[in-house]
Amino acid sequence: MKNLRSLRWIVLILGLALIAAACGGGGGGGGGNNSSSNNIKQGGTLNYAADQEPTGFNPLTSKDNGTSVLWVVNRVYPSVFHSKPDYTVELDSDLMQSADLTSQDPQTITYKIKPDAAWSDGTPFNADDFVYNWQNQNGSNPKIDAATTAGYKDIKSVTGSDNGKTVTVVFKNKFSDWKSLFGPMVPAHFTKAQKGGWNTGLDKNPQNIPSAGPFKVESYTQGQSLTLSKNAKYWGKPANLDKIVYRFLPESVTQPAALQNNEVDLIYPQPQLDQVQQVQQLPDVQYQINFGLSFEHFDFNFKNPQLADLKVRQAIATGLNRQELLDRTVKQFSSKATVLGNRIWLSGQKQYQDHSGNFGKGDVAAAKQLLEGDGYTLGSDGIYSKGGKKLSFRFSTTAGNQLRETQGVLLQSQMKQIGIDIKIANAPSTKFFGDMLPNGNFDIADFAWVGTPFPVSSSVDIYRTGGGGNYGKYTNPQVDQLFDQATAELDPNKAADLANQIDQILWTDMATIPLYTKPTFLAWRNTFTNITDVATNEGPFVQEPLWAQKA
Amino acid sequence: MVSFIIRRLLISIPVLVLSSVLVFLLVANSGDPLGDLKGRNPPVPKQVLDLRRHELNLDKPLPARYWIWITGFVRGDMGTAVNGREVRTLLGERLVVTMRMIILATLLALVLAILTGVISAVRQYHITDYTFTFAGFLFLSMPVFWLAALLKEYVAIKFNQAFGHRVFYTVGAETPNLTGSLVYRLGDYAGHLVLPMLTLALISYAAWSRYQRSTMLDVLSSDYIRLARAKGLSRSRVMVRHALRNALIPIATVVAIDTGTLFGGAVLTERVFSWQGMGSLLVQGISQVDVNVVLAWLMVSAIIIILFNLAADILYAFLDPRIRYG
Predict the structure, then answer these.
(1) Is B248 part of the contact surface with chain A (CB cutoff 8 Å)?
(2) How would you write the pLDDT of chain A (551 residues) with one tens digit per residue?
(3) Residue B33: how many other CB atoms lie within 10 Å
(4) Chain A contact for B59, CB < 8 A?
(5) In chain A, which among 325-384 make CB contacts under 8 A with chain B?
(6) Is A484 touching B (CB cutoff 8 A)?
(7) Residue B184 C-alpha, separation from nearest chain A C-alpha, in angstroms
(8) Chain A CB within 8 Å of residue B110 CB
């Protein structure tokens, strides 16, 4: 009888839970378009489905230097420059009066901060913040975790004047991409006072971190959500929305249903074909597919004796049909997808020039001719060999990434046609990036480089002799010298020309094979407006202050 | 009984230690937790990689790393995750989320399993039995992600659209920044809970109901049931007091063990409904080669399974007087 009594209780509890469920919820929906920026309503909350939870709140450390953190704090912390949809940068005119190159030799930049600019706790935003952010990123202290020292290590001094509102930065080595520096900046006075300081002092309680941007962190519930609210102390043009909620939904396949059910208002996942198609059919949702600054490529390992042979690399590039790779992968997302002919300037940038020539067009006969001219002979198994050694390479990429795995299979079949054997040897991303690439344990690797609006300085370590990202150990003194020139060239047009010269040499040397820029996918409920993708590392979140509800 | 429990607990300690050694070796050798940093552009400076390696004890040999972990665990310190978060806090949060999902799901599955199992047995080869059998096999063979997708599309979204009011939610355990009256908040929790609970319950119920049906059939065909009827006891008294009570004994073990396993996380259910529970923590730990997270998950899950096995034994004693007085 006791069991029956227990059963009655269980049934009662379930009943109550379902009745209570009927009392919950809230409505949603709406219609319209995204074209007008005047027809907006102030206030409101936008829910964004975030794939990842922030690992901390100092995006300048290696621990937190991912988009999961940057996209949250980008409009909380101040930046001298922000990126625009056309991949250029512009001065944050709410924060700064000016940021000018005032001397070529020594390179000197003079930053003038707006008099009203202050952190939300009342502390003025001034030269102390510039000094602190420089000192922690210049690599002088081995106990400091800085994601990169690029540019900061070339600075000789940072000094304040005019009550800290003018900052003078003098370089010891010229650095052409100086606009990439000082953004974002963490608050010096607050970070110094935290236990753990720069490295871990901003890990917890982000709601206490002062803001010098249009938003501040209002609350953070780990494992669930983080809410940004309008910074009431912001001196510049205020944000339109009251709040932006980052809901942590790690499984991006759940996002279309959540969008349809009005549980989230904006998604920005790594696009998958079925997911894109699902969202395209939703009636009250708008979307954009763009091609950003990340690009897929094949990396050659020059330590492999056969791949060290230029003719072999050229034969691979000649026999490779990049258009087929594109058609079978990202072209399915958007007809705008194109193959990439430059490793430094990407398709959407005005400095872009296609240097690929006749490479990557799937010319089987020409590829075979190159190999035969190099002394290779075709065996009965259809594979070329020289000196008794067959042309056989491993193809490696991040296992589980469907697009890349498809690219591997396509490469395998295309190379078979020109008499080169490809064996697939994929690995989980931690092993691929943590072991195979840095230890040179690969022949041909497929992965992406994430670009920034400052491609010259961010390409140095990929192609320069001994560079940290030069996994294939490519070396050419001329390229090294041109990079020295380009990074020290303060005239942007001349720097762009030098970068294009470098890319031409990289094609001649066939250092790597660029494939295409990666698509981005942004979708939002059309009750919101002023939302545009900015396909740089700052993402569409750089424009958060403009996001608004439709009137 | 007490000495039995203590004996069982003591035996489980070496099992736990051995399994932690094996899992530690497997995870520690499966990749580099700093792999993600090494693939960045511009490259992370070497001195920073060395610093992170030191912070995570990756610069120490494997036995030393294991020793640091096990001595910390004994003191209640489970170390920090690769992302710098305290594993103990992380595990606590995730366990609470998982418990919210599985407790009601288990209760619902149990009620359904017992009801349908018993009715199927009593009405063997009737249309009711065939219907329940069909339903049982249907849910038994249906993949979790598929069932979840159907529930989202045809229960949650369609229902909400039809009524113009959001009652059921498809992601998360609750609405962010939830405020309001207790009833409103309970409604929100329930609205988020219904779909994952149904998914989990229907999958679990399917197996359990088949089990309940067969044990009930065994009991109904036993001599003491015939004797009870021959003595003139009412059908309901025979069914409930004599048949059902005895038929519950085997299923108590199955449910206890299955529920213990569920505490380790209903991985698929959590992922398709974006619940950040124990299952997603395990997946995250493995994908990030986060030894501390995976080991902490293993230990807590194993301890829960051991406790639930003990609970099953105690339930046996409660349901079966022969054990209690034996």
Answers:
(1) yes
(2) 444 444 444 444 444 443 333 333 333 333 333 444 568 999 999 999 998 889 889 999 988 888 889 999 999 999 999 999 988 999 999 999 999 999 999 999 999 999 999 999 999 999 999 999 999 999 999 899 998 888 999 999 999 999 999 999 999 999 999 999 999 999 999 999 999 999 999 998 999 999 999 999 999 998 889 999 999 999 999 999 999 999 998 888 889 999 999 999 999 998 888 888 899 999 999 999 998 888 999 999 999 999 999 999 999 999 999 999 999 988 888 888 999 999 999 988 899 999 999 999 999 999 999 999 999 999 999 999 999 999 999 999 988 888 899 999 999 999 999 999 999 999 887 788 878 888 899 999 999 987 788 888 889 989 999 888 899 999 999 999 999 999 999 999 999 999 999 999 999 999 999 999 999 999 999 999 999 999 888 999 999 999 999 98
(3) 23
(4) no
(5) none
(6) no
(7) 6
(8) yes
Q: A519 to each of A71, A334, A459, A530, B36, how far by Cα in Å?
A: 18, 8, 20, 21, 21
Question: DSSP states of A227-264 as a string?
Answer: EEEE-TT--SSPPS-SEEEEEE---GGGHHHHHHTTS-
A294 touching B (Cβ < 8 Å): no
Tokens of A92: 């944050």
Residues of B in contact with A435 (CB under 8 A): 31-32, 35
SS3 assignment, position A46: strand
pTM listed for this prediction = 0.85
Return the closest-CA partner of residue A92 out of A70, A68, A117, A72: A117
